[in-house]
C-alpha cells in the first residue's frame, strides 16, 4: 500500500514538474491527471465538447488558412472553450501536458488550465498575474465551474476520477 502511494506521489510531482517545464510562460492554474493515454483522453474530451450544450469550443481558428496560426487554440495542444452556466460565462484555454513524444509513449496524460477569463475580462493566467494572492477566491471561482461542468463529465465518460495536480 505504501509503495503504491509513493508511486502516485512521485508521478504527481513528476508530471507537475514536467507540466511546468512545458507550459510556457502562462503557468498552470490547475491540472488534472488521468491514467490513460493522451489519445484516449483527447477522444473523451472531444465527445464531451460535441455533446454538451453548456460548453462551446472556440472555433475562431480558420483550419484551412495556415497564415492564421492561433498558438493558444491549435486544436492539438491548446483548446479554448466557453462554459456557460446560468448567468456565468467563462472562457478557458486548457493545454494537454507534454509533447508528441510524451503523448505517443506515456500511459498517463493530463490537461491544465492555462488561461481563464470571465465575461468581464477578469482572470488570465498564473504567469501573467491574473490570479494574485490578494484576489481571494478568484482561482476557486474559475476552477469550480470548470470542474463542475467539464472535468466531472470527463471523469464519468472515462470511468475514472482525475488526480488533482495543484
Concise summary:
This protein has 166 residues and is α+β, with helices and mostly antiparallel strands.
Describe the protein's architecture and organization:
With 166 residues, the chain is α+β, with helices and mostly antiparallel strands. The chain is built from 4 helices and 7 strands. Strands 1, 2, 3, 4, 5, 6 and 7 form a 7-stranded antiparallel beta sheet that branches. It is globular, with a radius of gyration of 16 Å.
Please outline the helices and strands.
Blueprint: H1 2-22, E1 30-34, H2 38-51, E2 55-57, E3 78-85, E4 88-96, H3 100-105, E5 109-117, E6 123-124, H4 138-158, E7 163-165
Antiparallel strand pairs: 1-5, 1-7, 2-3, 3-4, 4-5, 5-6
Helix pairs in contact: 2-4
Shape: globular
Tell me the number of strands. Answer: 7
Radius of gyration: 16 Å
- Could you tell me the strand content as a percent range? 15-25%
Find the structural class using helix and strand composition: alpha+beta
> Mean pLDDT, rounded to whole units?
83
In whole angstroms, the N-to-C terminal distance is: 23 Å
Largest sheet: 7 strands, antiparallel
The percentage helix is: 25-40%
The helix/strand series, from N terminus to C terminus, equals HEHEEEHEEHE
Number of helices: 4
Weakly predicted, low-confidence segments: 5-24
Characteristics:
globular, single chain, 166 residues, 23% strand
